[in-house]
């Protein structure tokens, strides 16, 4: 069972492999250009493991941001995790020793792979989810280290490299939209985000959008359960 679980988890994580290695390389290059070495780059990818926040973190580190600024920025950038992780509470409830790491490693891409709840036949479900999460982080850490090493020998402009995270989010959204029959969450997210962007502006729309999405999906879920 363990061998099958390992192989199935690796296969499941393959869609994230190329994206995380490439994006990790981008992060590593930014870290190197900002004057930070491999050890700090690897440490951030191991202990923080939050792609978009790590990209923002380069500017926070190099700009000498204070604790309060860093904390608020981290909350704004990663607030979405508080909301979409709610849908995983039931699946992770009985995950035992794997639970702390599963919670820590629930990135956007890992969520997109595990949110359907499907476990290959003959696999330990908790070990499967753990390994998918672990493989994804290994890809990110590997890419970060490679990027930091390459950044010192490949001089080129890093302007616009941060957009790679946006590109990955779009790709993950598209894949999930295509493979999922229920498009209500996706449409809710798009419409709610657009409305809050118009109402609050690009600097302040994130948290209101997350709150609105949560309220709408809670209402929809309540109606669906009432009809069963």
| Quantity of strands, as a count | 0
Please tell me the overall pLDDT: 84
Secondary-structure element order, as H and E? HHHHHHHHHHH
Derived from helix and strand composition plus strand pairing, the structural class reads mainly alpha
Helical segment tally?
A: 11
Give the overall shape: globular
Amount of helix: over 70%
- N→C terminal distance: 36 Å
Radius of gyration: 19 Å
Strand content: under 5%
Low-confidence stretches: none
Q: How does the major sheet shape up? A: none
Overview of the molecule:
The protein is mainly alpha-helical and 228 residues long. It has eleven helices and no strands. It has a domain at 2-157. It has helices spanning 2-33, 38-47, 51-62, 67-84, 89-92, 99-104, 108-114, 125-151, 163-179, 184-200, 206-227. The longest helix is centred in the first third of the chain and has 32 residues, at 2-33. The protein is globular, with a radius of gyration of 19 Å.
Quick tags:
228 residues, mainly alpha
Structure summary:
The protein has 228 residues and is an all-alpha fold. It has a domain at 2-157.
Question: What is the strand and helix layout of this fold?
Answer:
Elements: H1 2-33, H2 38-47, H3 51-62, H4 67-84, H5 89-92, H6 99-104, H7 108-114, H8 125-151, H9 163-179, H10 184-200, H11 206-227
Helix pairs in contact: 1-3, 1-8, 2-8, 3-4, 4-11, 7-8, 7-9, 10-11
């Amino acid at each position: 069972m363990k061998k099958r679980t390992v192989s199935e988890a690796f296969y499941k994580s393959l869609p994230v492999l190329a994206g995380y290695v490439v994006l990790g390389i981008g992060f590593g290059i930014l870290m190197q250009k900002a004057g930070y070495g491999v050890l700090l780059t690897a440490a951030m990818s191991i202990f923080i493991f939050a792609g978009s926040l790590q990209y923002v973190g380069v500017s926070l580190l190099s700009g000498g941001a204070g604790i309060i600024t860093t904390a608020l920025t981290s909350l704004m950038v990663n607030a979405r995790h508080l909301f979409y992780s709610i849908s995983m509470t039931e699946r992770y409830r009985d995950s035992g020793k794997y639970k702390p790491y599963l919670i820590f490693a629930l990135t956007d891409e890992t969520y997109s792979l595990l949110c359907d709840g499907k476990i290959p036949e003959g696999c330990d479900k908790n070990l499967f989810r753990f390994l998918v999460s672990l493989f994804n982080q290994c890809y990110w850490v590997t890419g970060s280290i490679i990027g930091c090493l390459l950044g010192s020998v490949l001089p080129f402009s890093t302007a616009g490299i941060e957009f790679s995270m946006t590109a990955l989010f779009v790709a993950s959204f598209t894949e999930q939209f295509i493979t999922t029959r229920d498009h209500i969450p996706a449409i809710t997210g798009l419409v709610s985000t657009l409305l809050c962007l118009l109402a609050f502006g690009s600097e302040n729309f994130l948290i209101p959008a997350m709150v609105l999405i949560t309220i709408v999906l809670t209402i929809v879920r309540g109606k669906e359960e009432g009809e069963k």
